[in-house]
Amino acid sequence: MKVNTIIMPVIENESINNDYVWFWFWLCFAIFILFIIVVHLLLQKKAKACLYDSKNNKFKSTDVQNIDMDNLINSINKSNILYKELICKCHPDRFINDTRQKNAEDIFQEITNNKRNYKRLIELKERAIRELNVEL
Amino acid sequence: MWYKIIIIAEWFGELTERYKLIRDFNRAAKISFINGEAPTLLQSRVTKGESTYRHEFSRFMGGGFRIKAMSGRPLKQNELIEIGRVVLDNEELVRELITLGWDTLEVQADKGYKGAKWKLKSYAKLGGYISD
Questions:
Q1: I need a labelling partner for A116 at 20 to 30 A (CA). Which of B38, B56, B83, B123 fits?
Q2: A70 closest CB neighbour out of B28, B85, B93
């Protein structure tokens, strides 16, 4: 009887100790796996972000966002007014029988094609001032 | 298993790019408004979108790109259309929106009940895999 009562508590303590050991083992294993995954993702992301450029024989990055937001906002707010001003001043009919008529037609065509692109309209405005001698 | 993890990582990457585009737009609009160049403050946000405008890359419950004009008055129809046309004429931006999962462009003011929306797929000038 006494032997049983002595042995039983010892066995219970051993099972509890074994549970703790396994808990810490699996926890460490999970942390290790997580570390491996993070390292793999970091390395994978760096390699995957590049596309191959055969011309220069190197990889290009795809993370570059080429959208000019400042131009977009300016186009929303100011392109309409600038467009109306430019088509009025640079219309080819104002340069009939003039040496600048061909330039005026080219510039007018560009203005029409870039009606809502403020940055391009500014460039065309400077070109119109330079080539057509208009006051804008 | 690694493939699924990469897919999950790519999904988060796309989510980051979507919110980066929203953030860049709002930042540019804010700076323009503060400098006095813009008469109204524009704000972009993600919405549910129009279910009939969905395409193969549309994001679930996040296909709408809404531009809200804080004008303090109801905008006229031609003003709403003009704002939308500026975005739609920028082919690069439209393609970027489509690849990031947007399918609907919405424009509205903070006052009034009018708005306008467009199907982005129709303005991307796609010639192959995605077609009507």
A1: B56
A2: B28
Higher pLDDT, A57 or B39: B39
- CA A100 remoteness from chain centre: 42
Quick count: other Cβ atoms within 10 Å of Cβ B54? 16
Q: Residues A96-129: pLDDT tens digits?
A: 888 888 889 999 999 999 999 999 999 999 999 9
Mean pLDDT, to the nearest integer, of B22-39? 91
A84 to chain B, any CB pair closer than 8 A? The answer is no
Distances (CA, A) of B47 to A72, A136, B75, B100, B106: 21, 42, 20, 14, 9
> Which of A37, A69, A80 lies closest to B5 in CB terms?
A37
pTM, to two decimals? 0.70
Encode burial over A95-122: b for 16+ CB neighbours within 10 A, e otherwise.
beeeebeebbeebbebbeebbbbbebbb
CA-closest candidate to residue A88, choices A128, A39, A44: A128
- Is the complex ipTM higher than 0.90? no
CA-only gyration radius of chain B, Å: 16
Phi-psi region of A133 (alpha: psi -120 to 50; beta: other; left: phi over 0): left
CB contact under 8 A, B17 and A77: no
Element spanning B43, H or E: strand B41-47
Minimum-distance CB partner of B86 among A45, A66, A72:
A72
A-chain residues within 8 Å CB-CB of B97?
Answer: none
In chain A, the residue whose alpha carbon lies closest to the alpha carbon of B14 is: A63
pLDDT tens readout for residues B50-93: 889 988 888 888 899 999 998 777 788 888 999 999 999 998 89
